[in-house]
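Table S2 (text version). Query chain:
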Amino acid sequence: MTVDKKFCMSSYLAFRFVVDEEKIFKDGMPHLDHEMIPVEKKRPCKTAQDIDHNIRESLEKIDLKHTGVLLSGGMDSAILASYMPKGTKAYTAKCLGKNAVDETIQARKYCDLYDLEHVVVEVDWEDYDKGMNPLMMFQGFPIISNEPQAYKIAKRAKADGLNCLVHGDTADIEFGGMSKMLSKDWGYEEWIERSIYVHPEKVLKDPADIYQFYENYKKADGMADYMDFICNIYGRATAAALTLACRAEGIGFIDPYEEMHLTEPLDIQRIRNGESKYLIRELFRMRYPSLDVPEKLPMSRPADAWMASWEGPTRDEFIEGCAKDLTGEQKLLVYSLERFLNLLDE
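Corresponding structure-token output:
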């Protein structure tokens, strides 16, 4: 492995993780990653009934008596919760702060229908502040935005005597939930603008060229291979946020959706007509016939409120005033990077 702080900083800002496994922030501190499941080892499916069957098979291999489920207000986790035994602890994060989205009311409906024990875990900025350092030192790179709330839930689950958590974060990746990213066929340059989190050159004085990695997702006709990018880049960071938080607490994890793959291409036109995750929607109706299908909610954490008073990084690696025009989510990313660099200097 090679220490390349410049590359690691740039990769993290752009993609939320370090895309090159051989490059690390500091000698002796390899960064952990989410291990993707090869397609040939996944369970094939093409119907809602196939997904139903595969979820059952995935859950059969774990000890459900000592397993909880991460439950939001959305349909992905609601479906998984419906397969859990009565009395299972279902954990919902309730982020506190201005404009935070409360998913507990909708999540409670699922628990009531399937006799699950609803456990609400409140998460505020203090929890983020407490969780960041141990997470970053465990995984060898700055946090992914929703990690600290998953970390607090993992700690609670461990205290409750559980050793595994079921989650469904990759349903969006596997079954066409990224409706905005799938809304059109993207040109190469415009896909970079759409998919990148923070342009390194707008934040760092001496950024690395991370755009070379986009070349892997450029088609011969100049268009972007956005489907592969979503699966291989976006999906890795999405899955890692929960799995690394669990690993940091010694808690097992399973995402049944990640263990599946569609044997037929996504029906992009259905998605663009407003029917994202059409197979998941069908399965939700099968499992919750008395409820309307919940539409996708904005992120529950109030990043804008939490980062409102932060004036930006002060370390020499950063451009002065670089955080001025960033969103709350982008500020949280830059803040995490600076905080991690400070830890490395201690």
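Notes on Table S2: The chain has 13 helices and nine strands. The first helix runs from residue 5 to 15.
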